[in-house]
Amino acid sequence: MSLLKRLNEKSLTTENNKVDANKATPVHQKSNRQEPSIYEKLHQYVMEELNENSEITDDQLEEAIPSIAEGFFETEGERLTFEAKQQLVDRVIDELTGYGPITTLLKDKDVSEIMVNGPKQIYVEKKGQIVQSPMQFRDDDHVLQVIEKIVSPLGRRIDESSPMVDARLEDGSRVNAIIPPLSLVGPSITIRKFPESRLNIDDLIRFGTLSEQMAKFLDGCVKARLNVFISGGTGSGKTTLLNVLSNFIQLDERIVTIEDAAELQLGQDHVVSLETRPPNIEGKGEVTIRDLVKNSLRMRPDRVIIGEVRSAEALDMLQAMNTGHDGSLATGHANTPRDMIARLETMVLMAGIDLPLRAIRDQIAGAVDLIIQQSRLKDGSRKITHVTEVIGMEGDTIVLQDIFVFKQTSMGADGKIQGEFVSTGIRPYCAEKLERYGIHLPSEWFEGEG
C-alpha cells in the first residue's frame, strides 16, 4: 500500500472517530477539547489537500507540501516569521514522509542509536555517549503510528497479542519495538542506525578498535577459512565487525547470511540473504533461525554467516562447521571468550537433545577456531579486547589461548581510556593452516610485550 493510501485511510479513521465522539457527547455538556494548535491546523489542511489531489505521488510529497502550506499561511500565518513557518512545514514533512520527531535524529550522522522511552522521552547515542534529545512525540498513539509505519511494509505487525517486533528501515538500520502492556512507560522504540557508507578495516584501525597487526591476522584467518565467533555485549559493535570481516571473503565464494532482521551489508555479488519470519495472527507460519540454518546447508554455501546465535540453532551451526562448512562467521552475546564457550554449551542444550556435556564440548572445540571479544568501554569507545584461539580439549575442559589482548593503562583527563593492543607472545596454533593458504605470520608479531 502506498504512503498516500495509508494517509487517506488514517485520515478517514480519525474523522469517523471524531464523529462518533460527537454523537456520544450530550450537547449540554461542556467540551474539554482544546483549540487545535497552529501545527495541528496545518497538518489537517495539508492532509485534506492531499486527499483531494490524487495525482501527487509518494515521491512528490516532500516537494508538494511546502506549496500546499503556502495556501494555509495566507489565512492563518500572518503573525508567523519565515523561520517559524519553515519549522512548521518541516514538522509536517517529517510526519508525512518520515517518522515524526525522530526523522531529524535519523538524518543526524553523529547519532548512532535512538531510544524512545514512551512519547515524552527520547535518548540518543552520539559519539559513544548517551544524551537526552529535546524531541518528543505527542502521545502514545503518535508513537504507535510511527511503529506501524515502520513494520507494516515488512509484513510484520504489533498489537496486544504480539506486543514485540523486530524490523529494519530501508537503509538497513535495526529496529525493535515493544508496546504496553509489556512496556510500562508506553510504546518504546530502539533504532540501531546503519552508517551511510560501509565501514572497512582501515576505519576500525583509525577508530582504535584494533591494531594493524590484529587486522592483518584476522584478514588471514578469514581467508584461511577459520570458523570465527564474535562475542560481545549489546551495542559493543559485533555486527559492524562482522560486516568488516566479511569483506575479507573472496568474491568468487557463495555466501548465505541468516538474520532475525536483515542488516548485514556484504560487498560480494554472490550473496543470499535469509531472514526469519514471526508467526501470523493465528500463531502459525513462524520461521526461526534454526530453520534457516538447516535450510542453508542445502543451498551449497561456501560460507554461512549468522547474524546472532542465541538459541538451539547453535547445535546445527556447530554440526555444519564440523562437517565441511568451514569459514563460517557468527556473533553471540557474552562478556568474555570463556563465557562465550559456556553460552554455546547452554544453547546446544536448548535444542532438546540429550547430549553428554563432554560430547557438546568436543563439538565446540572441533568447530570454533577463533573467538573475537568486542567490548564497549566506559568512555563509549569500542575495542577488541581479546583475540582468542580455541586449541582443543584437555580432559573435560576446552583450552583457550589469547593471541592479542587490549591492556588499559590509564584514564585520560578527558575521560578517555588509554591503553594498547599487545601480543601475548604465543604463536597461534592456526599458523600452520594459514601457511597452507599462503598466508605468512611474521614472527615479530608474537614477541610479546617486551
Automatic annotation (TrEMBL):
<protein>
    <submittedName>
        <fullName>Pilus assembly protein CpaF</fullName>
    </submittedName>
</protein>
<dbReference type="Pfam" id="PF00437">
    <property type="entry name" value="T2SSE"/>
</dbReference>
<dbReference type="InterPro" id="IPR001482">
    <property type="entry name" value="T2SS/T4SS_dom"/>
</dbReference>
<dbReference type="GO" id="GO:0016887">
    <property type="term" value="F:ATP hydrolysis activity"/>
</dbReference>
<dbReference type="InterPro" id="IPR050921">
    <property type="entry name" value="T4SS_GSP_E_ATPase"/>
</dbReference>
<feature type="domain" description="Bacterial type II secretion system protein E">
    <location>
        <begin position="97"/>
        <end position="374"/>
    </location>
</feature>
<dbReference type="InterPro" id="IPR027417">
    <property type="entry name" value="P-loop_NTPase"/>
</dbReference>
<comment type="similarity">
    <text>Belongs to the GSP E family.</text>
</comment>
<feature type="region of interest" description="Disordered">
    <location>
        <begin position="1"/>
        <end position="35"/>
    </location>
</feature>
